[in-house]
Amino acid sequence: MKNIAVIGAGTMGNGIAHTFAQFGFNVQLIDISQAALDKGVATISKNLDRMVAKEKISEDDKTNTLNNITTYASIKDGVQYASLVVEAATENIDLKLKIFKELDEVCPEDTILATNTSSISITQIAAVTSRPEKVIGMHFMNPVPIMKLVEIIRGYNTSDEVNDFIVDLTTQIKKVPVEVNDYPGFVANRILMPMINESIETLYNGVAGVKEIDTVMKLGMAHPMGPLQLADFIGLDVCLSILNVMYEGFKNPKYAPCPLLVNMVTAGKLGVKSGEGFYDYSESRKAENVAKMFN
Question: Is 223 in the active site?
Answer without folding.
Answer: no
